[in-house]
Design goal:
single chain, 425 residues, alpha+beta, five-stranded mixed sheet, three-stranded antiparallel sheet, 12 helices, 10 strands, elongated
Amino acid sequence: MAVQEARQGPEPGAHDGGCACGDCPHGAREGHRRAVAAFLVKRDEFAAGQGLPAAVAHSASASRQWVSEELTQSAELVADRGRAEGESWLSRVWQRTACTVGAAVVTLLLVQSLTAIGAGWTTARTAGLLAALLVGGALTAASWLHRTRGGALAPVIGEDNRLSTSRVVAAAWVLFVAYAVLVLVGRLAAASGPAERDALISGLDLARGAGAVTVLAVVCAIAVLVRRVVGVRVLGQRLQKVRAHRPRAADLLTDDAGRGTFADIQYVVISAVALAFAAVRLARRPDQLPDLPWGLAVVVLVSAATYLAGKYAEGGRPVVLSVVRSREAGDLDGPIRTGDDIEIRGAGFVPPGAQTADRLSRMVVRIGTVHVHVPLVPVAGGFSNPTDAVLTVPVPAEVEPGRVEVQVITAAGVETNRYAIDVTD
C-alpha cells in the first residue's frame, strides 16, 4: 500500500513529514513511511533497469556508480526521517507510561474488589493499592522528567538505542521488591498492636526472603556486567554495534538484526515466570517478603548465567578470507588490473542491524592508500552487493601497480585484517 501511494504521489494538502505536530497523521511517522515507500520504488525501478539516464546507460560501471549514488542519497533521507520519527516516539512515551500506570492501578483495584467479595476488605488490600499508587506515581513523575529521553524507558535503553534485556529484567525485579516492601510499610503503619508490628518486621528477615534477595542481586549484577562486557568488546573491535532509530519491544527477544536469540528469550521467559510466582506468594502472604523457593531461584540464576555466556559468545571481528578478480561471462582470465572489479570474500562484513541502505552505503574498502566506497547493486527486494560474505568493488586508477593491501571497513567502523594482492598495469 505504501509503495502504491508513493507511485501516486502525496495527497493534496498532506505534509511532507517534516512537521512536529504531535499526533498529526502527517508528522514524523508519516514522513518516515513515505520516505521508505519512495526508496523502495526507486530501488525496484533501478533493479528492473528503469530510470537510467542516457548519459550513463552505455557503461556498466558508470550506471552502477550512478545508481549507487542515487540510492545512497535516497537512503540518507530515509535515515533522517527515521531518526526524526524515533525522537518523536520517545517524546510520547511518558504519556503512554501514564496511561499504562493508570490502567494497571485500576486493574489492581478491580481485582482486589472482586476477591474481597465474601472475604471482606482488609488492610493488606489497602496497603497493596497504596503501594501501587506510590510506585506508579514515581514512574509517572520520572517519565515526565525524562520525557525527551524516552520517559520511564530511559534507564533501560542501551547505548545503541535499543531496549536492554538485562536492564529490563533487573528493573522489573527492582520495582517488584520495592512494591513488596511498600506493602509491608503500609501494613506496618496500620498495625494496631505490638505483636502484629513485630510479626511484620520479622517478615523482612533475610531468612524468609533470601531467594528473592539473591535473585535481585544477581540480575542487577548481570545488568551492570553486561554493559561492561559489551562496551569492552565494542572498543576492542570484537563486537559490531550500530545504533537503532528507536527502541522496540522486540529488542528484548531478538538480536540487533531482529532475529530471535535463545539466550535472551529464555532469560525473559524464566524471569517472567519467577516474577509471577513471587507476585502470587506476595498476594497470599502480604506480611513478609515473597519467599522464593531456592529451586526456582537457582533456575533463575542458571538462566542469568546462560544469558551472560551468550553475551560473551556473540559477535566477532569481520575477516577477509580471499580476494579474487571478478569475472563476467565471456571475459578472459588474467591478473588484477586497475579498472577491474575485485571480489572480496570473507565474513562479518554487514553488522547485525546494518542491513538498511544507509548503513550499507557507509562501507568502505581500502585498497592501498585509496578508499573505495562499496557500490549498492539493487535487486528485487534487496541488494546483491554488498553482502555479509562477499563485496565487489572496482580497482580505481589511483591505485599504484604492485603489491597492495586490501582492508574492509564496516558500517560499524570495525576494520578487517589486511589482505595483500598484486595489481598490474
